[in-house]
């Protein structure tokens, strides 16, 4: 049985006022006594199409924390899908519990039944705490699952496509900052050489850049460094490096009060989600420092584009072609930010909201 502290969802906010804050459409609390399932499915916006988003399994300290996570994640999925030109809305799910201990086939399949009952209004994929095998269990109960292995007719690992979109976004940001999208000779610091980071480095190495890398795992660093001739730097050292481009490809929140004044780069473009600790404060601070920030939820959308392309019968070529458009979308957003004198993350949100508002004249929900 999953043990979660039973606390008030929030000290000062009711569930409905939390939904109202960012205009979430629907939240489904899923409970099953026999399997111990406690899950929350959050549907933020379905104007453009069914809500898509990952299912995360995490040992949240409280129900309030789980709800907060699902509301936050689902909202960003709306923006990510809208700005990438996808006909999809934003959603997300969290299963409360320790993925190493509480996960069973029955629990996952029960969760699949809840997804099924939403009749396609929510389509899910793998996120933190979930594996491809877990998604196969969910798939046994509902067809509304994507991001499946190639053997099951899916697109397989989305990381190379996510890296390609990040690379496109980085080139667009370089064009804005340096007047050319060629990265030749540029000094680029990549933080996190996991799945996406390593594929990004492979693309960058072809452009003859000077690479600086850091990661928590030394064996991974050694491998990437010897393969691409990248210089290994310390995890804290990376922020103060004299580089042209900083690419956060590890965890979110690395652009914060402690790091922002140390940055010497002219461009930030990486795959990590939620790079700005506080999107308003740190988005504006980057603008004030003249650093071109390529909005994370736009340039890392290649992964989402890849899993969405499964829904119409997976085609790798078309997933890459759609991802390539991130170059143009990034330039459009950087231009909009300049024209309106706003920071680039805000410009990206505005552009996503504009598309949703326009299409809401055609239809209001899925
Ligand atoms: N995989 C995808 O398709 C995809 C798509 C969109 C966005 N993203 C985002 O991109 C980021 C990377 O995803 P991934 O799939 O490559 O994950 P991953 O777990 O394979 O790799 C992340 C790497 O970053 C390292 N890392 C974490 N924090 C670090 C820090 N502070 N300093 C240095 N290294 C650090 C980790 O050790 C790990 O090697 C994540 O934020 C993820 O949410 C991934």
UniProtKB/TrEMBL annotation:
Pfam families named in the record: ELFV_dehydrog, ELFV_dehydrog_N
Name of the protein described by the UniProt record: Glu/Leu/Phe/Val dehydrogenase
Enzyme Commission code: 1.4.1.-
CDD domains with a match to the protein in the record: NAD_bind_Leu_Phe_Val_DH
SMART domains cross-referenced by the UniProt entry: ELFV_dehydrog (SM00839)
Matching SUPFAM superfamilies: Aminoacid dehydrogenase-like, N-terminal domain, NAD(P)-binding Rossmann-fold domains
Domain of life: Bacteria
Keywords from the UniProt entry: NAD, Oxidoreductase
Keyword NAD: yes
Database matches in Gene3D superfamilies: Leucine Dehydrogenase, chain A, domain 1 (3.40.50.10860), NAD(P)-binding Rossmann-like Domain (3.40.50.720)
Glutamate/phenylalanine/leucine/valine/L-tryptophan dehydrogenase C-terminal domain sequence ranges: 156-364
InterPro entries per UniProt: Aminoacid_DH-like_N_sf, Glu/Leu/Phe/Val/Trp_DH, Glu/Leu/Phe/Val/Trp_DH_C, Glu/Leu/Phe/Val/Trp_DH_dimer, Glu/Phe/Leu/Val/Trp_DH_bac/arc, NAD(P)-bd_dom_sf
Any one GO MF annotation of this record: oxidoreductase activity
Membership in a protein family: Belongs to the Glu/Leu/Phe/Val dehydrogenases family.
